[in-house]
Write a structure and sequence with these properties.
11 helices, mainly alpha, 2 strands, 278 residues
Length: 278
């Protein structure tokens, strides 16, 4: 439910209005001072890590069939983006949509890169901090150690990806993540936002695509827990070079190019909103 000139309405915003809203959001995000940008970035990394942790807890049940396990893992992983959107935080993958404001010349490329760089590093801090806390909680060794085994298995699978596969998987993941963020632009209530977030996030997790910020939790928590000789790809080198670099580049292409610039071209190109960047 929203309001226009004091009149309440329940209709979701149409795509053209969503594009204008996304552009304005990009301008606001690019202008955030560091004293707000850094803590909001740390929070977003932590929120995504909580979703990732929740997903691993659910999928550690070996009695589930692979399809059901993937589906449930995706549904509960949605918690991460719900926390980011509803609670308010700065997530690198979602912020690739700031490119819409850049294309309209309302934000400079320098401002865009500043936002991406600061938020990316802050996301890393938040995600790794949660990974450390999860390890220190002792929960990975609880019961029969199924959760710890799941943590290591996930990191091994991700670490063994070929560079090209990781890149394309990153593209696909952030197309879905940014479509989720894009659809929240149409929402008037928290319920609306949650409803539009869950399906695309569930889809990307269930399909096994790669999300750079989630991997900032998945790898460190496995590394803190301690890999065995059966997990040769659970190393900092495989994480940072073989996974995080191609996945991050893929996330940028998926979010900025295939979602942000496509919608800018359709709804904002040549509009009166184009102005000199500040």
């Amino acid at each position: 439910m929203g309001s226009t000139n004091g009149e309440l309405h329940f209709d979701a915003l149409l795509p053209a209005d969503m594009a204008e809203k996304a552009e304005k959001a990009g301008v606001a995000k690019a202008g955030l001072p560091l004293r707000r940008l850094v803590p909001l970035g740390v929070l977003a990394g932590a929120f995504i890590a909580f979703g990732a942790n929740f997903s691993q807890v659910i999928t550690a049940d070996t009695g589930l069939s692979p399809g059901i396990r993937s589906l449930l893992g995706g549904v509960v992983f949605s918690l991460g983006l719900i926390l980011v959107v509803v609670s308010g935080a700065e997530l690198f993958t979602g912020n690739t949509l700031i490119v819409m404001a850049v294309a309209s010349r309302r934000v400079t490329a320098t401002r865009l890169l500043r936002n991406w760089g600061v938020v990316y590093l802050a996301n890393f801090v938040g995600a790794v901090a949660v990974a450390a806390l999860v390890e220190w909680s002792g929960k990975l060794d609880a019961g029969d150690g199924a959760l710890g085994a799941r943590v290591l298995a996930v990191a091994e699978t991700k670490g063994s990806l070929q560079w090209g596969n990781a890149f394309v998987s990153g593209v696909l993941a952030n197309v879905l993540v940014c479509l989720a963020v894009w659809m929240t632009m149409s929402a008037h209530s928290i319920v609306d936002k949650v409803i539009v977030i869950v399906p695309p996030i569930t889809a990307f997790v269930a399909a096994g695509y790669e999300h750079s910020i989630a991997n900032m939790y998945f790898f460190p928590v496995a590394l803190f827990h301690g890999a065995t000789p059966d997990q040769p790809h659970v190393t900092w080198s495989h994480f940072l070079v073989d996974n995080l670099v191609p996945v991050t580049l893929g996330n940028i292409v998926g979010g900025a190019l295939l979602v942000g610039l496509v919608y800018w071209f359709v709804y904002l190109r040549g509009s009166s909103n184009e102005a000199s960047a500040t």
